[in-house]
Amino acid sequence: MDRARLAEYLRTRREALQPEDVGLPRGQRRRTKGLRREEVAVLSDMSIDYYSRLEQPRGPHPSEQMLGALARGLRLSMEERDHLFQLGGYATPRRSADADHINPGMLRIFDGLRDGAAQVVSHLGETMLQTRLAVALLGDASVHTGLARSMHYRWFTDPATRQIYPAQERAEQSRLIVADLHASYTRDGKGSRAASIVDALRAVSPEFAALWDGHPVAGRYCGPIRLQHPQVGLLELDCQRLVDPDQSQQLVVYTASPGTASHERLELLSVVGGQGICEQGPHDAGRAGPVGRR
After folding, report:
1. How much is the pTM?
2. What sign results for the dihedral spanned by CA atoms 235, 164, 138, 95?
3. 89 by DSSP, 3-state: which?
4. pLDDT band (50, 70, 90) for residue 288
């Protein structure tokens, strides 16, 4: 680890970012060149003291997870992220569809949607980033670890995952989720994270195994979605998705038609928050959800 060069690199990347680049207001009295340290800390989900010590430089040796968070917070490109890891004393992370790095362009679009219900989702149903309203609507996905990070996995192993969907739509939702995972497995092959999820689900879920053996195919359509929210009731929403060029992740946005009861309920949810919601809703490839890429 090269503490001095790491500190200098963090400072230069922070100063190169403007508040509007990350969806923050500039304000009239801003004197700092680029972002403030506390703003980078918030964007990277770490304490201000921890980040400040890294820049000084007198901080601890950051873990790979911390460096990944800094890469997202500083909106680094893949090449810039690789350099950050090298300065931190780690090998360059493997570049693949399984990586957790979010495309900086997608992050910039996400930053402009912070008042709406939006999230970045991987091709394995792993929610990588959420707005406050998305958390209130779908639950905080950051609480999940291991295989359970994938909504595809939770759908077949945790009954609570299904509660947000009306009962009559859950069977179709199961099929669409399996179709989306099937497409990821076909692309990534054996030895991938997609294969690990498939193997685990075949071992514990007869429902999944039966659907998997039917070779379901995902469609491109991402249309209306109905969610039965425990606080505000039934929500009829539209979902739009922006797919990354390498097909590994997508930005999903949930909206409701103005003037409808669902629009009023979504606005209410933005005020009351998501107390009591502990599970995010599924993301799939068809009319009931947004994960599908094909």
Report:
1. 0.68
2. negative
3. coil
4. very low
pLDDT surpasses 50 at 92: yes
Same domain, 136 and 161: yes
Same domain, 110 and 254: yes
| Residue 222 binned pLDDT confidence (cut-offs 50, 70, 90) | low
CATH number at residue 13: 1.10.260.40
Cα angle vertex 249, ends 150, 145, to 5°? 25
**Identity of the residue numbered 17:** L
What is the per-residue pLDDT across 150-186, written as a single tens digit (0 to 9) for each? Answer: 999 999 999 999 999 999 999 988 998 999 899 888 8
Task: Look at residue 52 in the predicted model and tell me its pLDDT.
Answer: 93
Q: Does residue 111 carry a pLDDT above 70?
A: yes
Q: Is the dihedral of CA 175, 178, 180, 186 positive or negative?
A: negative
Determine contact, residues 281/176, Cβ cutoff 8 Å: no
Q: Has residue 285 been placed in a domain?
A: no
Closest CA to 180 of 210, 153, 157: 153
Within 10 angstroms of residue 290's Cβ, the number of other Cβ atoms is 26
Q: Which of 159, 160, 96, 85 is nearest to 122 (CA)?
A: 96
CA–CA separation, 270 and 51 (whole Å): 30
Q: How many structural domains are present in the chain?
A: 2
Could you tell me if 224 and 217 are in contact, meaning their C-beta atoms sit under 8 angstroms apart?
no
- Tell me whether residue 162 is in a domain: yes
Of residues 118 and 103, more confidently modeled: 118
Residues 6+ apart with CB under 8 A from 126: 100, 141, 149, 150, 151
